[in-house]
Amino acid sequence: MRARWRVAVVGVAVLLTIPAAAVPAVSSVVMSPGVESLVPKPVAADTGRGRFVLDEDAHVVARGAAREVGEYLAGALRPATGYRLPVSTREARRGDIVLEVGAGKGPAGHTAEGYRLVTDRWVARVSADTPAGLFLGVQTLRQLLPAWVDSPSRVDGPWSAQAATVTDYPRFAYRGVMLDVARSFLTVDEVKRYIDSAVRYKVNTLHLHLTDDQAWRIAVNPPPVNPAGLDYGALTRVGGTGGSDTLGNGTPLGTGPARRGFYTQRDYTAIVAHARARFVTVVPEVDGPGHTNAALASVPQLNPNGQTKPMNNTADVGYSTLDANAAVTYEFLTTVLSQLAALTPGPYLHIGGDEALVTGHDNYLTYLTRTLPIVAKLGKLPMGWNEYAAVDLPPGAVVHYWRGALEPVLRQVARGAKVVMSPAGTSYLDQKYEPSTPIGLSWACRNTCDYDRYYDWEPVRDGLAESDVLGVAGPLWSETVRSLDQAEWLSYPRLISLAEIGWTPKAARDLTGFTGRLATQGSRLTIAGVNFRPSPAVPWTTDITARSQHSRTIEGEIGRFTAPTTATPTAVVDFGDGNTTTATVTPARPAGPLAAPGVWRVTIDKHRYPRHGTYQGTLTVTTPAGEAKAHFTVRTGH
Ligand code: TNX
Question: Residue 475 pLDDT > 90, yes or no?
């Protein structure tokens, strides 16, 4: 099955890197890619001599605790390479990938998530103390291979990586993203795909905002003890039907109505399992005492007058509250939080606590004072938006900072709490990139809110010590988000900025260097089928590949390339027999106001070689950024 391809000399992928400002038509041809393009930037990386070439009969050698990550990596590499890549325990041979987990294998002092990676002329080796560290090192290895390695369909090799030595570990333990599935729903498959792209950048925490004024998205089963006789099924039967369709004044939000739905407990468990297999911790959030209209609209007993509120499909917030003085409130929370705790292996339960504008201060304190012990009793640590720092928190509690005064947070930190930083103006992924951005809000970030702004800030604010900060997270609120595509478009490239803040040592970060490294990620996202906003300030690179063939007549697809541009590139094919033709160029997905173009396909009409032989052809594409070339070989068969 491989034979047809083995005789053909494989197409050479050529990476074009031209700064946006440079004069087009002069192409700089670079062998792709090296340690200097890794994102997030590693702690230490050196270039060695020569290259690692993945053998077509390579094994992924992974023993014991490395096996699961081995299966993951092999699964990631098989579609593009077409190689079998068995995961085995054989003695490593030239061209294999070796994965190893064991005490002392990773960098000393960074056992939880550190790793070492060495690629040389013999093997590619990733070593770590833990499977989590190994998984993170594997993401680095993927980035050292050509961008086409993420293609869902077969592409010509060779699959090589620069010889390198990387020693790496994270600055912060919590590198998160939050999906607000309450305002607009995302299906289980969409959440899984979102996880798959985020882990490329070493994101390790997924916070799910499951409930809000607009909707309730997690099924709660009837509990064995139900003194107040609450109909928990109504939470999703009624509360699951809501969404953030309009502003309070009726102005439509987003590109259409919000998406409805909810997760059964089996669905939620599937998300948790998918996350866990990628070493991602899920943090579920049940917001309260404010942001609770959907619960109040579903369960009559939660209302002081015993009457349900109407559902409200506007984006309005701040008008709802649970009753802090009613026993039923805590009976309800105990049921909901116990079921979530049982389904969630991670250490945290996020209890919200933001914008409780009609609760009243004393009632707010009462609510938290009575809710925190419920969390503790379930063996979980509480996490909450920074308003909740108004009460004394247990050691290890997490304050999720989004805006406002830092003093109450510092007081809790002094008592042993930790902080996750999501300052709205530099980390809210739901904000418009610029005023003309078709979706997104703009209260937290006006004018230009591109990747640079989300990169150029420091989470360890004055008054905080490095060890007080657990990490960084990007919340993607979904008042205006209507699909995974749109979620990705708002997230990328800004989530990559946050991921690097979470990972890379402060002293190693710089915006210019980051911009250059980010430029190589457009191709990777495109090839992997992840939408993003091709920010005009980034000199996105083009990756090109051409297909070698074994036939006297060739037609159809001759190559593919990436180019995040709305202007249609042009392509010329030199067949290597004295003939040249203009080729047809079509994107797998057209660019639009909310979509980067997909991979461009280059196709030709039928070409018949005049006589038998071996021909070296060249595909040349011209994009607004310059020219890129790939070579291919055609053997006519005699
Ligand atoms: C503020 S951040 C909120 C959310 C909104 C978001 C929109 C926070 C704790 N509360 O309820 O969705 O702004 O940007």
Answer: yes
Q: How far apart are alpha carbons 437 and 428 in whole angstroms?
A: 15
Of the pLDDT bands very low, low, confident and very high (cuts 50, 70, 90), residue 32 is: low
Contact 479, 441 (CB under 8 A): yes
The secondary element (H helix, E strand) that includes residue 354 is none
The string of pLDDT tens digits covering residues 185-213 is: 999 999 999 999 999 999 999 999 999 99
Q: Of all protein residues, whose CA lies closest to atom 5 belonging to ligand 1?
A: 477
Task: Supply the residue whose CA is at minimum distance from atom 2 of ligand 1.
Answer: 402
Residue 508 three-state SS: helix
Q: What is the pLDDT of residue 424?
A: 98
For residue range 491-506, list pLDDT tens digits in order. Answer: 999 999 999 999 999 9
Residue 566's pLDDT band, with cuts at 50, 70 and 90, is confident
Ligand 1: lining residues by beta carbon, under 6 Å: 317, 354-355, 385, 402, 428, 430, 441, 444, 477, 479
- pLDDT digit string (tens) for 518-545? 999 999 999 999 999 999 999 999 999 9
Indicate the SS3 state at residue 134.
Answer: helix
pLDDT at 637: 82
C-alpha of residue 557 to centroid of ligand 1, in Å: 47
Residue closest via CA to ligand 1's atom 12 equals: 477
From 209, 292, 312, 354, mutation site for ligand 1 pocket: most ligand atoms within 8 A of C-beta: 354
Band (pLDDT 50/70/90 cuts) for residue 624 is confident
Question: How far does the centroid of ligand 1 lie from the alpha carbon of residue 388, in Å?
Answer: 15
H, E, C per residue of 521-546: HHHHHHHHCCCCCCCCCCCCCEEEEE
Domains annotated for the chain, with CATH where assigned, are 1-41+511-638 (2.60.40.10), 42-168 (3.30.379.10), 174-503 (3.20.20.80)
Ligand 1 atom at minimum distance from 430 CA:
14
Q: Whose CA is nearest to atom 10 of ligand 1?
A: 354
Mutate to test the pocket of ligand 1, among 183, 286, 317, 421 (most ligand atoms within 8 A of CB): 317
Rounded Cα–Cα distance for residues 99 and 372 (Å): 42
**Alpha carbon of 477 to ligand 1 centroid (Å):** 7
> pLDDT tens, 112-147?
999 999 999 999 999 999 999 999 999 999 999 999
The residues that are catalytic are 355
CB atoms within 10 A of CB 371: 28
- The pick from 214, 293, 355 for probing ligand 1's pocket by mutation, whose C-beta has the most ligand atoms within 8 angstroms, reads 355
Q: What is the mean pLDDT of residues 73-101?
A: 98
∠ CA 129-134-139, rounded to 5° = 155
Match 């339960």 to its residue by tokens.
349
What are 208's two structure tokens?
Answer: 């799910």
